[in-house]
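Teaching assistant's notes for section 4

Start the section by putting this record on the projector. Ask students to predict, before seeing the second block, whether Probable membrane transporter protein will look compact or extended. Collect guesses on the board.
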Amino acid sequence: MDTLSYWLLLVVVGLIAGVINTLAGGGSNLTLPALMVLGMPPEVANATNRVGVALQCLVGSLGFKRHNQLPVEEIRPILWPTISGGLLGSIIASYAPSSWLKPMLLGTMLTMAIVMLIRPSVIAPPPGTPARTMQQTPSAWWVLFLAGIYGGFVQAGVGFILIAALAGSLRYDLVRANALKLVCSLTFTLVALVVFVVRGQVDWVPGLILGLGTMTGAHLAVKMAIKAPASVLKWFLFVMTLCGCAAALWL
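Reveal the predicted structure now:
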């Protein structure tokens, strides 16, 4: 495969991953293997992938804000645990063996799939359910902190943990949970990028080309999220969870 074909592959994969990550999670199950096809070591692919993720989260967050679906006043208390967890997770990822990634990813996916089958209302609250504050739900702080550690360590599947905290613990509907999820992902991804850049593990050209695709995917996904019924978003999330399980077993 020539260089142009590699770049086209990254743009297409990035576009699909941008849609998946914005509406659910697990898009890095596509982008990480695509980067490794370029011959990148796992730690470099893990670091380079964050460029596309950061750009996708920025575009998605701004898109939800334009449609008044991003509860801006709730961002600050949610960010503290995700930022601190992201810093810790990225430092671990910079030094830890890649063999740690698969068990964490598979465990996350399987837990989400089981919860959604047995008690779907935990992840997708019924319409009209009032959201809770961080003060009302102290346990959400620890869930978000763990999500930050996981997201700093490896991006793949972190969206599912964030949705579990934002929709499951804080009871946001799936549209607003996805909007806040993107803000959280953006913050700990930027923290992780700083660590990886200092360690010299980011390959910028493939990362930015991937980002072109993820930004386009995020832009399209925001429009889909605003228009789609809650039941459609719930089933999309469930299907992506199962796909994440399959990817974790296969990778």
